[in-house]
Fold:
Amino acid sequence: MADTSAPQTQVIPSKPGLALPDMPLVIWMVLVTIALGFAGGMQADTFVSTFNTGFGTALGEFALILLPSFILAAALARSGMASAGAERATLFGAPVAGAGMICPDTAYAALAPAAGRRKLDVAFGAYTGFKLVYPAGPLIVATGLGAAAGETSAATLALYGVALALPVWAVGVAWAQVVLRRGAHSGTDADPMPHASGGGLLVTFAPFLLLAGLLALGGIIGKTGVPILDFLFLPKGALLAAAVLALVQTARHERRDCFDSAVRRTASLLLVIGAASAFGAVLTTLVPLGALIPHGSGLGALLGLFGLTVAFKLAQGSSMATFAAVAPVAAPVVAASGVAPAAAIFAICLGSFIAILPNDSYYWLVRRDALADEPSDARAIWVLTGGAILQAVVGMGLVVAAVLLWT
Structure:
């Protein structure tokens, strides 16, 4: 993963005709949030309370994710063990990591250091796995729908999720290859890749093997009653253990640099994520998204659920927040419409693909790493959002086709 520890800001360019101030995007987000709140008639106390709640909602979660992820990234970047084999391993492991870690941010940050020229492929793969592969998106949405999800079994969701994820993932990888040929990115097909032996590659991936092993043990054993073990069996705890192992493999004199890099990168991202979350909190307080609940039955309800989730995702930014917010709202619609619960679950999961925008923390992770060489935020938004929309449309087309075929 490229080290972006030097302060970086996303700047809104000032055009002569508009005479806009030249300020970092995070400042614009805060100012727009303030303007939105008071334009919407919010009382001062309500606005401050909503802003505070939104800003701090997920910062602790992201601190536990980003700090060990960036320590791991910095340590692996100093290992010099990137190889074509490592690229392929991260490419095919990205969807599994996205689902297993139940967080595309964590999966991408963990795999990107070894991804080489395939970082954008890995980004779309981790995003796909989190959205569509059990136990991530499908389980979260099914849990939120509650009784409306019916008796849909875990095995059914897992099977349907993998069948849907494969073509959606392929679309993301194909899109990444197209934009790699057309845009400026870190690394091209002409870049030489250092060779790594099988043993060296195994050492490089030892932190990932530890990560996967701890998550697997957690799934098999469940809660032990021993707090430290229960923490290590969680994605955040397993990621911390992987970061520690990567540090052990790093030369002693380079470890402080790894810590410093992780702190700088985490601090800047937390500020952006906090501002984006505050904007989403104010917006969803003012805009009655519940009024967008679709009515009708069958295919119309399915498309309505997809559209409703898109609206929540555009407002919230966070995929997890979207899943948490939209499922309870959609539950009465699913129960009343008669649409197949599994189809409804994946319509919601696919709606959350749209879009990867600056109010989504995942945008900033990928923007500052895989798309660090892109000259503008507009171009980066087009690359990420264009791919995510294409994945969502293809996936929803498959769901609709399946519903029409089997009903």
Notes: The CA atoms of residues 309 and 351 lie 5 Å apart. The chain has a mean pLDDT of 80. The chain has 18 helices and no strands. The longest helix spans residues 252-286.
